[in-house]
Amino acid sequence: MRCRTFYLIISLLGLMMIFTTRGFTANDNQQATSRYFEKIRKAHDNARLTQFFTMMPKGGDLHHHYSGAIYAETYLDWMVKKNICIDPKTMLPVPCNYSGGVYISVDSLRKNVPLCRTVLENWSDLDFNDHFHLQDQPDQHFFTTFNFFGNISGAYYREGLAEIKARAKKENVQYIETMLTSPGISVKYPKGLTDSLAYFQVRQDTSGLFSTLDYFADFLQSSPGYSTSLKNYMDSLHAYHDGIDDSAFTMRFQAYANRNSSPDVVFTKLFSGFDAVSRDHSSLLTGVNIVAPENGIISMRDYWLHMEMFRFLGKKFPGVKTSLHAGELCLGMVKPEELTWHVRDAVFIARANRIGHGVDIPWETESLKTLENMQRDKIAVEINLTSNEFILGVKNNDHPIRLYFDAGVPLVICTDDAGVSRISLTAEYVKLASRYDFTYTEIKSFVYNSIRYSFLKEREKELIIQSLNNRFKDFEDQIVILNGDTVTK
Ligand SMILES: [Zn+2]
After folding, report:
1. Are 183 and 224 contacting, i.e. CB atoms less than 8 angstroms apart?
2. Are residues 80 and 214 in the same domain?
3. Residues 266, 124: one domain?
């Protein structure tokens, strides 16, 4: 008996020694995964990096435009269902019973391979850099794609969201916060009121502007059908979303205004977005954004006005979260002085909870103060590498991603418009790892950031973070096996 006990102790000691020397803790599996990651990153082995990030759980995609996320091929499918044809000259959709010119059906288009390819090139960034052809400027091309599929994009929200979800789950993404336009409210303000916006804007008179915005708010809220429109909007959102959430995937929405609309329209969209979020106790609609080309004539002219509108609405609807496209600009696109203040005003005036893009930060005159504030207040920056490269031509070390990271600003990795760019979130992580020397642990922290800095409720965040912990454990186990190590159980 004594002998058996002795052998048992010796065996246990032996096992402990093996555990110690071979490394059998979860933490060790993370370190082994880090070593494997460094090996393939330093070897510029993009195929293995792609495999690595396909397998890795990626948390959430927080900068995600619904209509830009749908691939053109899906829009063509929807056109067949809706009996919509295509004008081969303009590449625009037209009803199949249209009598004003020549058009072809989507079925005929698909049999005409060169023409079908040309349609996809116009409806997305396909082939833009692969061959020489007559083409618009990249940013012009990018934003023009929305004109082709814009009228179809709202035709099948349920199917579109289901496709986005299915793709996300396949690439190990747990959450998407996608942008849909704010409630459509038709209202005609008195001319004197709209004129006064321009008056206070020119003088940058905040108190005068806020008094005017109070009138706007009263006029809008008392306009016929306002509350019904908000209710219909939320009812539609719930109907689209029905069946999307499950134990492994969650989707939420942001409302938005188009920054190139007239000021009264922007205010109406923002106000109805804020109001809808504040009324939504289900928290399906989580926040408000402002979108569209920042270098547009109207958006550049009205940028200060828009930031003040956000400040006004933040006071009126406290607690409503905002993410603002800000600083999506580069040298040459606008005058140098226009590169010096957009992120700053989104942070200090609009009080944004997150910043989308933020590319112009190195050019901003108060960048240190802005970065310090973003770090202190945990204002995350949404990084969209492919989008920035295509639209702005900003890539590699010209991109301020390290500037944000080194300043302690939380980073999240996003796609922006995966359908237009013909990318995926996995591809963005591959680009991140192949261009910048972030460690595996740092990249893992970006994944957790994508849940921590989402606009989900705290309880919802906790559940997804628990799921992420389990998924990372499984992932690191798989990588350890892949690398020929032994796995902890
Ligand atoms: Zn965007």
Report:
1. no
2. no
3. no
Statement to judge: residues 88 and 206 lie in one domain: no
CA distance 217 to 220: 5
Q: Which residues, by Cβ under 5 Å, contact ligand 1, an ion?
A: 416
Ligand 1 mean position, distance from CA 384 (Å) = 8
328 CA → ligand 1 middle, Å: 9
Distance 85 CA to ligand 1 centre (A): 29
Instruction: Tell me: do 409 and 355 sit in the same domain.
Output: yes
How many structural domains are present in the chain? 2
Q: Residue 313 sits in which domain range?
A: 157-456
The pLDDT value given to residue 487: 58
The CATH number given to whatever domain includes residue 294 is 3.20.20.140
Contact 237, 285 (CB under 8 A): yes
Which pair of structure tokens corresponds to residue 158? Answer: 């349920």
User: Quick check: is 41 in a domain?
Assistant: no
DSSP character for 483? Answer: T
pTM: 0.91
Asked if residue 365 belongs to a domain, the reply is yes
**Token pair 């690595």: residue:** 52
Between the CA of 67 and the centroid of ligand 1 the distance, in Å, is 11
Distance 68 CA to ligand 1 centre (A): 9
Phi, psi of 341 (to 5 degrees): -150, 0
Examine the domain organization and report whether 248 and 131 are in the same domain: no
How many angstroms does the Cα of residue 123 sit away from the middle of ligand 1? 17
Q: Which pair of structure tokens corresponds to residue 393?
A: 């031509």
Q: In angstroms, what is the span from residue 356 Cα to ligand 1's centroid?
A: 7
Q: Do residues 285 and 311 share a domain?
A: yes
- Residue 43 Cα, ligand 1 centroid: separation in angstroms? 32
209 CA distance to ligand 1 middle (Å): 28
Q: How far is the CA of 458 from the centre of ligand 1 (A)?
A: 25
The stretch 150-175 carries a mean pLDDT of 94
**pLDDT at residue 7 greater than cutoff 60:** no
Q: What distance in angstroms lies between residue 394's CA and the mean position of ligand 1's atoms?
A: 15
Stretch 370-391: mean pLDDT, rounded? Answer: 97
Mark whether 139 and 202 lie in a shared domain. Answer: no
Residue 407, amino acid:
A
User: Which has more pLDDT, 143 or 49?
Assistant: 49
